[in-house]
Design a protein that fits this description.
276 residues
């Protein structure tokens, strides 16, 4: 192996620093602009020209973002929990059991992932309307769970298949019931994959705009953060101070979520690359 020279190490360090700066600068600009009182009139700057908390105060009170954040948190939490549970049980079923149309079901799951989301807006809108859940958070959660399941089932299928059947049989021999085996043997081994799929579900529920706007367009009290941000964009001008403050509030929960699950997420992505 070729030894790394000081010049080469310096070049790598400069390249990494440039990449980090390129990646993090928009986030820095967003945060600084959110504290700038003159952001709306004079554009953003590297440092706030006049520091203020007014942008956040307006967004959370007059802008209604306290309600939007609560709605998005409920939608994201329910979507993650329900889709993770259903995807895990479904992946166990299609991996461990043999039944008619099993291959066709797996093929349909794969095909669903190839369909553009825009093509599903009208059919899902009609279904939600017929179920009487239009302009409700419940209807939006049902749609998000449905959108998250194909990816979750397909990805968790590889993790479940990687669990040796002998471990399950040993648990049964020791007197464990199926629920005990599932909780004590299967669940810990597939947890990295479960976290990885949960991240996908969380991002879908937190950032998605088209379905949220279509299904909740007539009820402001049910809005999520992605729709609420739209109110600060005007026909002739934009309130950039409010936009940046709202965008920061939207970004912080995502960053916290990634910090909490990042170790498990790394394990899941690496394992998923070799356990297909």
């Amino acid at each position: 192996m070729r030894k790394s020279t000081p010049l080469r190490r310096t070049g790598i360090a400069i390249a990494v620093a440039a990449l980090l700066a390129f990646t993090l600068f928009p986030v820095y600009w967003m945060i600084m602009s959110s504290f700038d009182k003159k952001a709306s009139s004079g554009g953003g700057s590297l440092l706030p020209r006049e520091f203020t908390w007014d942008n956040y105060a307006y967004v959370l009170t007059e802008g209604g973002f306290d309600v939007f954040l609560r709605n998005s948190a409920v939608v994201a939490l329910v979507t993650v929990l329900v889709s993770a549970l259903v995807a895990l049980l479904a992946s166990v079923a299609v991996t461990r059991f043999r039944f008619k149309l099993r291959t066709s079901m797996l093929l349909m799951i794969l095909i669903v992932q190839m369909v553009p989301l825009e093509a599903l807006v009208i059919p899902l809108f009609i279904q939600v309307k017929n179920l009487g859940m239009l302009n409700t958070i419940l209807g939006l959660m049902v749609v998000y769970v449905a959108l998250s399941l194909p990816f979750g089932i397909w990805m968790l299928r590889g993790f479940v298949a990687a669990v040796p059947v002998e471990l399950e049989e040993a648990a049964y021999i020791d007197g464990a019931s199926w629920s005990r085996m599932f909780r004590s043997v299967m669940l810990p081994l597939v947890m990295p994959g479960l976290v990885a799929t949960s991240v996908f579900s969380f991002i879908t529920a937190w950032n998605e705009f088209i379905f949220a706007m279509t299904l909740l367009g007539g009820e402001k009290g049910q809005y999520t953060v992605s729709i609420g941000l739209r109110q600060f964009f005007g026909e002739h001008s934009n309130e950039w101070g409010y936009i940046m403050a709202a965008s920061t509030l939207i970004t912080v929960p995502v960053m916290i979520f990634f910090v909490v699950v990042q170790r498990r997420l790394s394990e899941g992505l690496v394992a998923g690359a070799v356990k297909g």
